[in-house]
Amino acid sequence: MISKRWQCVRCGADVAISTWMPFRCPNATATDRHHALTIVDEPEPVVIDAAEHPFVAADEHLAWAACAEANGMDLDARRALVLATDAAVQTVAGVGFHRTPFTRSDVLSDELGFDADAEGGVWVKDETGSVAGSQ
Q1: What confidence score (pLDDT) does residue 83 get?
Q2: Are residues 77 and 112 in contact, defined by beta-carbon separation less than 8 angstroms?
Q3: Cα 111 to the chain's mean position, in Å?
Q4: Which regions of the chain does DSSP assign to beta strands (E)?
Q5: How remote is the C-alpha of 61 from its chain's centroid?
Q6: How far is CA 103 from CA 2, 60, 107, 109, 117, in A?
Q7: Tell me, what DSSP letter sits at residue 48?
Q8: Considering only CA atoms, which of 82, 121, 83 is closest in space to residue 102?
Q9: Torsion over CA of 31, 12, 24 and 34, rounded to 10 degrees?
Q10: Are 120 and 105 contacting, i.e. CB atoms less than 8 angstroms apart?
Q11: Helix pair angle (75-93, 63-70), 10° resolution
């Protein structure tokens, strides 16, 4: 079972994970809108199998999956929904959801003066081949 909840970073208010589309803290007002919700009770990070569909592999880390589970949708049903949605997106966009490269850019790192032998530099997530293109 996925154990998660929403919590306000400003006032600490808890919002049940089963709440449908919790866009803001219930304590937010028209003059104090700094009440942002964040997910808490996140499981420890794990290495996700690159061969598996990314949304299936990351299920326990996704807020939508926690909300769906809290509202009665089991893992098999969530997986089926993810795969059916991906197939529909592939039909329309020609590409489905997949992992996109995250690599160090030697050109940018060199231009900004990062040592080629040292760790660090500029890392780039290339989303140009993804469903939505580059945001």
Answers
A1: 95
A2: no
A3: 31
A4: 5-8, 14-16, 37-40, 102-104, 123-125
A5: 8
A6: 31, 25, 12, 11, 15
A7: P
A8: 121
A9: 40
A10: no
A11: 130
Structural contact between residues 57 and 86, judged by C-beta atoms closer than 8 angstroms: no
Residue-range domain boundaries for the chain:
5-93, 100-135
| pLDDT tens, residue by residue, 67-77 | 999 999 999 99
Query: Which pLDDT score, from 0 to 100, does residue 1 have?
Result: 53
Strand 14-16 versus strand 5-8 pairing type: antiparallel
CB of 19 closer than 8 Å to CB of 67 = yes
Distance of alpha carbon 74 from alpha carbon 68, whole angstroms: 8
Question: What are the backbone angles phi and psi of residue 43, rounded to the nearest 5°?
Answer: -65, 160
User: For residue range 73-110, what is the model confidence (pLDDT) as tens digits?
Assistant: 999 999 999 999 999 999 998 888 888 888 999 999 99
